[in-house]
Amino acid sequence: MEVTKTGEEPAPSTKRHRPNTPITKGPSVDDFTPTSMTLDAFNQLSRNQKKKVLRQELWDQRSGEFREKQRAKRSVLRKRHKQRVKLGEVPAKRKLDEQERSGHSIIIDMDFDEKMHDTEIKSICSQLVRCYSTNRHGPQFVDLHITKLHERCRARFDKAIADHTEWPASRIMFHDTELLDVFGADKLVYLTADSPNEITELDTQKVYVVGGLVDKNRYKRLTLDKAEQMGVAHARLPIGQYVQMASRKVITVNQIFEILVKFVETGDWKQAFLEVIPQRKFNEGKSGGAKAVKDADGAAEGVEAGDTDEAEVSEEADDVSDRESSV
After folding, report:
1. Within a 10 A sphere around the Cβ of 152, how many other Cβ atoms?
2. Which of 28, 250, 282, 324 is the least buried, fewest Cβ under 10 Å from its Cβ?
């Protein structure tokens, strides 16, 4: 029997052993015959390009089965949710006429399609779905506009989120045009981390613009430069006055939108930041949890909301159409 240096038996291992089951590997690009192109054209591709074609064709073959499983899973979750509503464990979903119009307006500017990779396009589209969901199910809603939705983002919506055409225009409006074609420059305030200005309130006479971009901080001053070129006002969120964030100083588009909506509901920036921003992005005090800034004078330099990065948002859009079934 194995013993430690102190003469005691070692603690039993908690490591789980994987059963001796064979690992099934997928097809290799070396013996794969594509259906979307000729074999000669396929052989002229680099190995990484071949893998991309292989993955896409495998997904096209299996996507139907995957979606059927997802539909079955959502059906179970819907039944479970209805049961919890009956038991009073969760509140019932609000219908359209149960929401109150706040009078505030927010634009998500999607004029950055060419600056994102394909995976980032999927991410930003999923974030837009979450913005709509937030606006659709809260006690109050804002006038949400999506401008310059075109090219790959438009194609993504038309293919993977086709139900967006049935979303009520009172909760989200899509525009193919530039934001200056929707609102006058004197009404716009572009929210960007690079702005030296800081907002303290949200004015119902103004329209606040959020850059619809996932870039992992590749582009500096991008949204500020655009605001200055258009001749519109710009500002940043007052995050540094209320909370101290840890390493990553950027938040996603849907989180910025949720913060704005939460502030509209509560009138409290601190509550909005603490409820929306993930806890792991905050500095932790000795007692754990988010570390709030008690006063601006004693705080470290404020951390501002930056251009969004690809974050914890599912690449596939939430099934929002299921939520509309009760309306």
Report:
1. 17
2. 28
Is the CB of residue 246 less than 8 Å from the CB of residue 212?
no
Distance (Å, rounded) from C-alpha 293 to C-alpha 299?
6
Annotation says 215 is catalytic: yes
**Phi first, then psi: what are they for 282, rounded to 5°?**
-95, 150
SS3 74: helix
Query: Where does residue 130 rank: exposed (0-12), middle (13-18), buried (19+ CB within 10 A)?
Result: buried
Output the tens digit of pLDDT for each of the chain's 327 residues.
Answer: 555 555 555 555 555 545 554 555 678 888 888 998 999 999 999 999 999 999 999 988 888 888 899 889 989 998 998 898 888 887 777 888 889 999 999 999 999 999 999 999 999 999 999 999 999 989 999 999 999 998 999 999 998 898 999 999 999 999 999 999 999 999 999 999 999 999 999 999 999 999 999 977 788 899 999 999 999 999 999 998 998 876 555 789 999 999 999 999 999 999 999 999 988 777 654 344 455 554 333 322 233 333 443 333 333 344 444 444 333
Burial 190-218 (b: 16+ CB within 10 A, else e): bbbbbbeeebeebeeebbbbbbbbbbeee
Q: Which residue among the candidates 109, 111, 215, 307 is catalytic per the annotation? A: 215
DSSP single-letter state for residue 326? G
Query: H/E/C letters for each residue in 195-243?
Result: CCCECCCCCCCCEEEEECCCCCCCCCCHHHHHHHHHCCEEEECCHHHHE
